[in-house]
Amino acid sequence: MNKSKYLAFLLVPVLSLSIARVSASGSWCPTQSMIVARTRHTATLLPNGKVLVAGGLNASNTATATAELYDPSSETWSLTAEMAAPRSRQTATLLPPSERVTHLPS
Fold it and tell me: What DSSP state is assigned to residue 3?
């Protein structure tokens, strides 16, 4: 998989994150929205090409502990294990080679 084809993260006003991909014709195509609408979250590109989105503020402007994985091969989002505590405006740093992400409150 060519990771360079999945580089656009678009934050839209309805508190959702969508990923745009490059089609075979070279044009940008939107993919589905995340399961949990959010803003002020982290988005981390993992070595396997998936994108981990964690925390943020939900539509009620409340911090969330939810996390989702975007799989560019199937163009789908899936919920993953929640964080121990809700967070927003946090940072995320990929820790090679274990593919673990750490979240620290800001």
Answer: G
Inter-residue contact 78 to 71 (CB < 8 Å): yes
pLDDT digits (tens, 9 = 90+) for 42-76: 998 888 989 999 999 998 999 999 999 999 888 88
- Residue 97 belongs to a domain: no
What is the extent of the structural domain holding 36?
3-88
Q: Which amino acid is at 35?
A: I
Counting Cα atoms < 13 Å in the Cβ hemisphere of 61 gives 0
Pairwise pLDDT comparison (87 vs 12), residue with the higher score: 87
Q: For residues 20 and 32, is the Cβ–Cβ distance under 8 A?
A: no
Q: Is 4 helix (H, G, I), strand (E, B) or coil?
A: helix
Q: How confident is the model at residue 100 (pLDDT cuts 50, 70, 90)?
A: low
